[in-house]
Specification:
3% strand; mainly alpha; 2 domains; 302 residues; 3-stranded antiparallel β-sheet
């Protein structure tokens, strides 16, 4: 690719924007500039890989570089829109099986500060602060472990039934996820051991997994919040920590270890991996490193 020349198929897309979409010549020039700039970046990162074959991680790497270079967010938002249009056209034309930027947004205008995330040391202190001597303590400890160890939403945790625990596969079935989407979540071995002990003490094969102590009815969202708040106080962790904080922490710690964004998206119950990309923003100073590890892992699989 030299000068203003692009992939012939992309040139066809630009012609489509003018002939069929009736976009102005100025807009088409802007789209061309974006696609050329991104193509040149990707040629260094993923040689000979068409834009419509790239992953969300590849685009996050480009965004990270642009931000580090001081590119304004309003400019990046416009460029992401240009890319999204091309990828949607490629998907509708059968050149790719999905648009990895579908639903992606920078979120900066909605969330001006990163969500609170526990450090590894704080997470360990929180779990240690949850005793397991009595049935009530074991239930509270399991609440914290499932929120942090499985990344559950509070409502998903409350809706779990005993029969949603798959003893053969060591997984949890989330029947009522966001958007009525079901998913299965593998349970870490340490959490699984405590879950089995809790089930043995609880007894019964049906009904709510987590019940109130008095009426033996399904635990509420408010009670889960109180359980987490009490554990945080015992652990001496400063700042506001909610059940949602533990879910953020689950995703961020996985991403910080280089786990693929698509895998985390599946575990979190996100509609697309694009929703999960926002967790890179809670890794100040480490976003480039995290994306590089994700890229390296992806290249090893090719």
């Amino acid at each position: 690719m030299t000068g203003r020349e692009l992939d012939p198929w992309i040139e066809g897309y630009l012609s489509y924007l003018g002939d069929m979409r009736r976009l102005t010549p100025r807009t088409i020039v802007d789209v061309r500039c974006t696609l050329k700039k991104v193509s040149e970046f990707m040629e260094q990162q993923r040689p000979k890989t068409p834009l419509w074959r790239l992953t969300l991680d590849d685009y996050l790497a480009w965004l990270s570089q642009e931000r580090d270079g001081g590119r304004p967010d309003n400019v990046l938002a416009k460029q992401v829109s240009h890319l999204r249009g091309l990828l949607d056209y490629a998907w509708r034309s059968g050149r790719s099986d999905r648009n990895v930027l579908d639903g992606f947004s920078l979120h900066d205008r909605v969330r001006k500060t990163p969500p609170r995330v526990l450090t590894l040391e704080e997470a360990a202190r929180l779990v240690k602060a949850c005793a397991s001597r009595s049935p009530a303590q074991r239930r509270s400890r399991l609440v914290v472990l499932l929120l942090y160890g499985c990344g559950l939403r509070t409502s998903e945790l409350c809706d779990l039934d005993v029969q949603d625990v798959d003893l053969e596969t060591q997984e949890l079935l989330v029947r009522k996820g966001k958007g009525n989407r079901q998913r299965t979540i593998p349970v870490p071995t340490a959490v699984w051991t405590e879950l089995l002990a809790y089930l043995a003490a609880r007894g019964g094969k049906r009904g709510p997994l987590l019940r109130t102590r008095a009426r033996r009815t399904r635990i509420s969202v408010n009670e889960v919040g109180q359980i987490v708040k009490s554990a945080v106080n015992r652990a001496g962790i400063e700042g506001k920590v909610t059940p949602r904080t533990l879910r953020h922490t689950f995703a961020t710690h996985l991403m910080d270890r280089g786990v693929d964004v698509a895998v985390i998206a599946s575990l979190m119950g996100h509609r697309t991996p694009a929703e999960t990309g926002v967790y890179l923003h809670v890794l100040p100073g480490r976003a480039n490193e995290a994306v590089s590890r994700l890229q390296d892992n992806g290249e090893d699989d090719q």
